[in-house]
Amino acid sequence: MTSAGAMQRGTKIVIVLIVAASVFAAVTLYAESTLRQAFQRQLLVLRATDALTTNAPPGTAIPASFGPHCAPAMFAQSGALIVQSDVIPTDATGVMYVHYDYTKDATFSSTGGDDVAVLFFRASVAQVGVASAVDNATTLFRMEDRNSTLFIGGVGYAAGQTFQVTFATSVTVGSNTWTVQEAYAVTSLGFTTVTVQPPAACQ
Length: 203
Known about the structure:
Elements: H1 3-39, E1 40-54, E2 62-64, E3 73-75, E4 81-84, E5 92-101, E6 108-110, E7 116-122, E8 128-131, E9 139-146, E10 149-152, E11 155-157, E12 162-173, E13 176-197
Parallel strand pairs: 1-5, 2-6, 4-13
Antiparallel strand pairs: 1-13, 3-4, 5-7, 8-9, 9-10, 10-11, 12-13
């Protein structure tokens, strides 16, 4: 084989190796991007607290719903929101994480158990209704996600801003009627990355 032929063959091998490396890099980047999209979502994130008080005496056992037994979401120490994959809708555009704060003296009788609930904004639904924890038939307020900005009652709340309001609901237990106040504080964290993970084992 002449030196020119060997050089030509060597050039072909180099080209083949470069093409193979380029294809491998493209496939790797695509796989990483797909995995990232599968386990991360960009959503409007809201962090809310529903603080409940009542004029009922301790131990009244007012029926309430404080989220499911196993919390479907949690905030990590870094501040990132982690959501279980079995609860997040495919068309979700935002999520509100709600923590229920109330006295643990048996005044409220929860049908849930973990004191955390999540509500989702969806592309197919214009508004999200927030129901009372002690009367699911009563909607306290409605929210909208407009281009990743929270709107309540026509007022916009940008990242870092908080919507605060207190509602009073009458609840009858036996022959007595009591008033439950729910003080909501909803803070917008803006359009941010949410980590999606498989549901954890729950006892």
